[in-house]
Amino acid sequence: MGYEAVKKYFEEHQIPNEIILLEESSATVELAAKALGREPGEIAKTLAMELKDGTHFVLVVMGTARIDNRKYKDRFGCKAKMLSFDETLAVTGHPVGGVCPFGLPEGIGVCLDESLKAYEMVFPAAGTGNSAVGFTPEDLARATAGVWVHVTKDEAEG
Fold first, then answer.
1. Would residue 157 count as lying in a domain?
2. pLDDT for 41-52, tens place per residue?
3. Count of domains observed in the chain
């Protein structure tokens, strides 16, 4: 689970990106940005979600992005429902603060929000609350087989 699952995923998929293990916590966008010396928007926030039919997936968004309820409902046909702390670990195998789009159990899809494309590099967690890994948005899509969606508020919308 967690870091070990991510390491194994990187090996199996021949992903050369180096996992950054930090001395300090990177469990929130603000902590990750500080620990990595990056802007909060560059942190790729991964949210564990559930659809009304009980299907689970992870949604990766720019660190400062907020879900737009209308866009989400138009895309997924239901209100946004994030998993609880305990459900997140049970469904993704990653603890809250370390949830990432790598090393997920079979059947857990990955959706990447268009907001990630605002940056040349983004930094999702790597299975723990003190890890990260850098990707271009395009490489992140390839590494995760993620589907692009647009379900966050545009910057001007706040």
1. no
2. 999 999 999 999
3. 1
Residue 158: pLDDT over 80: no
> Which structural domain, as residue segments, surrounds residue 137?
3-149
Output the domain CATH number for residue 109: 3.90.960.10
What value does the mean pLDDT take over residues 95-109?
95
Terminal Cα distance for the chain, rounded = 35
DSSP string, 58-117: EEEEETT--B-HHHHHHHHSS---BPPHHHHHHHHSS-TTT--SSSPPTT-EEEEEGGGG
**What would the two tokens of residue 146 be?**
């993620």
- Whether residue 79 is contained in a domain is answered as yes
